[in-house]
Amino acid sequence: MTAEQSTIRGGGKAATQPLLSASLLDGSSLRAVDTTGTSYRSMYVRRRLRADHDIAVTSRQAVPRSEASAFRQISPVLRRALAAFAWLNVAVSLVVRVVHRGPYVPGWDFVGAAHGLFLASTRSPRAIVSYLLEHQFDTAFTWILTALSVLPGFLAARWPSAHWPLVTVLLFSLLAFALLGAALRLERTEWWLVTLGCAASSAILSNALMGNCHIEATLPFAIALCATLRCRATPLAATILAALAIEAAWHVHELGRTVFAVFLAAAVCLPHAQWSARAVWAAAGLLQLWLALRFVDHNTAHLIAMRFPPPATWAEYARDISVYFLSATPDIPLLLVAALLALMLVRGDRWFWRAIVGFQMGLVWLLVTNPGVMRGLSCVWPRRILVLEFLCLGLVVAVIRERHRAARVLLGLLVAGAVWQLAHTLRWAARPLDPTGTRLAFTLPYTETTMERGAYLDSKVSFSLVDWSVELRSRAEQGRRLLLVYNLSSFDENNTDPAGVLERLYLHLGHARFLDTVFSFGAQRVRWNELPIRPMNELDGFLGSLTDPSIVDGYWLHHPNDEQPTWESATTHRQEVATIFGKLGERFQIVWGLAVKDLQGRTLHRFALAPRSG
User: Which residues lie below 8 Å from residue 342, measured CB to CB, with a gap of 6+?
Assistant: First the structure.
């Protein structure tokens, strides 16, 4: 027992002397803490300081003192230069993405926000809370419509704008990485390490600008890392943070639900923790695991059903995965290469880091080795490795602060990755968004969801639809009333990859202006989200109220798949289109304007209404 520990445990007058306290993982010298104040006389505070000190002392035994503060041995000039490079790299990369992409954002980015705007405009705050609680574990209620996803809609109810989904996702991304730095106990001069890691990942930077919330799956992991790495001696704080992490896991993409692995790994593998904290972590991990297995949706059902392949095939799969990642298909590979090296070098909390990173690697392995829909090597999309890269970044930063020689190697890999990422971004920005000239493309690097035979799942943007939405917004700003023969039964608003034409307009105008300006009729007003689409039985009343039809701009968008004879949605859409034009023809003369056909075969028809002669 050290002299400092004897003083603490002695109680009495000795307990009023300065105690020694330190952070758990870094190599800085111990700091004197004055405990003469009344607030430090409680037994709880003395026990907490004693536990923190014991953990700090024992933690240093795992890393030689010559290496514990080795990161500080790097030249201050070099560290400042690397910090400036990291921040500038990320800033330039984000700005270039935003400017070059322009308005060509996937429709998925607006779905949750539009639902939030509808809720905020049609329900009381108490009813909204009840609604979200009711659907907390609803397996048909996807992450697209959870509290974090609908939040930008609440903001749009106060300040209408279609930019809110992109702003809030970026802010939540920043929060997740800030919490990661807090979990690692980074000092003010070390935060650039996290920034440098982000600069080495094109997938992280691009998805931070995607309103579909996939990167928000890192948020529960960031909270969980704080609940474990920062709360080894404070079970109450661990309990609060664990509860927040579990709650957040059900408001983000499904990968967030695997946060149970962090708590279970901490309970078993994290050294120098009080048993009460381990009990909290174990309970949190088991609870979240039970919830994930109890409330299974369509996507997580596929994950649960996956099995490991026969051992005889492992070598072949490992080779294919290595080639796939090293070819920079899902992302710039150097962050992952640095993480693999860090897994071998990590000393402090080594088995904890190996467990949580290895678990995410195992999920990728299962995804590759199990055949089926949206499985296989080609379906390891950038957004599916965001949580893995987030944890890899945390591991690499932890090892950089631990080891001197490794710090130089790992920093070199991150710098090379950041240079590679920036060069790739600038090359991407120097080309048209649709280099093939089809006016259909993924509009940010490393956001692809391609599958075999050239198919894709979602997030591909049709430029003609975005251009149309911009035209609609412009006409609405000019005071025109918009009659849209277009609704949720239109093929372009399908459940898999909606264009979000109505959602973009809804968020830009706000609920009240949308109702006054936009008139879309259909039997369906709920897809994943709910929109103020008017029922078909209100069509006659609307047409009867049109005393001056010249103020109306009419649009009809027709997609070739709207003619599919066996699709129920296509049949419904054809019936609704026929009804709308039949009613219009009874009351007005339809004056057809310019029709434009795009390369995918959809045709945008413009029309005006005039009084019938005679």
Answer: 353, 392, 395, 396, 398, 399, 406, 410
Token digits of residue 178: 């800030």
| Predicted confidence (pLDDT) per residue in 226-244, tens digit | 999 999 999 999 999 999 9
Cα separation, 491 vs 487, in Å, equals 9
Residue partners of 379: CB distance under 8 A and separation at least 6: 367, 451
pLDDT digits (tens, 9 = 90+) for 523-566: 999 888 899 999 999 999 999 999 899 999 999 999 999 999 99
In our burial notation (b when 16+ CB lie closer than 10 A, e otherwise), range 52-90 reads bbbbbbebbeebeeebbbbbbeeeeeebeebbebbeebb
Query: What separation in angstroms does the CA of 277 have from each of 229, 274, 289?
Result: 11, 5, 18
Secondary structure of residue 372 in the 3-state scheme: coil
Calpha distance 439→498 (Å, rounded): 17
- Residue 363: strand, helix, or coil: helix
At 214, the amino acid letter reads H
Please name which of 71, 210, 124, 117 lies closest in space to residue 529, comparing C-alpha atoms: 117
> From the centroid of its chain, how far is CA 553?
38
Tokens, residue 578: 């026929």
How many Cβ atoms are within 10 Å of 358's Cβ, its own excluded? 16
d(CA 291, CA 296): 9
Q: Where are the beta strands (DSSP E) in 81-207?
A: none
